[in-house]
Write a structure and sequence with these properties.
Radius of gyration: 20 Å
Strand order of the largest sheet: 1-2-3-4
Number of helices: 2
Order of helices and strands: HHEEEE
Length: 107
């Protein structure tokens, strides 16, 4: 989902059908890694759901051009828990060479 101006993390997830208790648990469990109150309008928040249960399993937020926040549902049978980690974004670079001949000038 694209983050709209004025939108905060909690409202964004609740509009996506995520329960308030789950939103609060995610906020609490991620605070030491990244404060989700700092999300930026215009960026994307990717929500990944389990295909069978349709429950939220993971969310991904690009913090900046170098890092992304990945929050995974690691809930046990007795307690809901979300693990967060700030990981580097890996980019691949490809070098290409072009050759040609200019037959005439632009003017």
């Amino acid at each position: 989902r694209r983050i709209a101006p004025g939108m905060n993390f909690a409202n964004l997830l609740m509009q996506s059908g995520i329960a308030t208790d789950t939103v609060n648990t995610i906020l609490t469990n991620t605070k030491k890694v990244y404060d989700l109150s700092n999300i930026t309008a215009g960026k994307d928040l990717t929500l990944v759901y389990d295909s069978q249960s349709e429950k939220l399993q993971k969310l991904i937020y690009e913090i900046d051009k170098d890092f992304q926040l990945v929050v995974k549902n690691v809930t046990t049978s007795s307690q809901e828990f979300w693990a967060a980690e700030k990981i580097p974004i890996v980019y691949s670079t490809t070098r290409a060479t072009a050759k040609g001949v200019i037959d005439r000038g632009q003017f």
